[in-house]
């Protein structure tokens, strides 16, 4: 029995509004049993963005919280497009991009904010997939984290 919705409720977190595309792309796309989710940013519950560069304006810990917020935005998109987190079978891949100073080296620590959220929602077996965490010289609107992900749907 899928428990993702129950797990999310138990976390007592609030989903932000599902972000609307600010460019020429789809927020997500279903291909067969796979759900591809476009890069998401740090959308807060009020629709505003967390802004800043890690290592300059933010600490690694603040960046990790920002990555968790990106994870919440991804969950909001999933719910808006497929109806329920229970329809996701597992996380396949996460690509986390960190807007940081050149000397910053804790990219995986930051992206753990989203990965730990997904593990809490879908459990460690299904909520942890393969992952890359990389540093970027900048990200759109000076957001600290952008994440894209691939999920397998439970059809």
From TrEMBL:
It comes from the Bacteria. Residues 9-125 form the Endoribonuclease L-PSP/chorismate mutase-like domain. The lineage of its organism: Bacteria, Pseudomonadati, Bacteroidota, Sphingobacteriia, Sphingobacteriales. This is RidA family protein. SUPFAM superfamilies: YjgF-like. It comes from Mucilaginibacter pankratovii. Gene3D superfamilies: RutC-like.
């Amino acid at each position: 029995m899928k428990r993702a919705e129950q797990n999310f409720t138990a976390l007592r977190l609030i989903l932000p509004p599902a972000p609307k595309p600010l460019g020429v792309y789809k927020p997500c796309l279903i291909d067969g049993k796979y759900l591809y989710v476009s890069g998401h940013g740090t959308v807060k519950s009020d629709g505003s963005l967390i802004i800043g560069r890690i290592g300059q304006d933010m600490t690694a810990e603040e960046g990790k919280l920002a990555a968790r917020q990106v994870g919440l935005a991804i969950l909001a998109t999933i719910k808006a497009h497929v109806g329920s987190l229970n329809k996701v079978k597992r996380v396949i891949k996460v690509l986390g991009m960190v807007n940081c100073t050149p000397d910053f080296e804790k990219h995986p620590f930051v992206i753990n904010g989203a990965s730990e959220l997904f593990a809490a929602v879908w459990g460690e077996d299904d909520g942890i997939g393969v992952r890359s965490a990389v540093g970027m010289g900048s990200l759109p609107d000076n957001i600290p984290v952008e994440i894209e992900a691939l999920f397998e749907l439970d059809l």
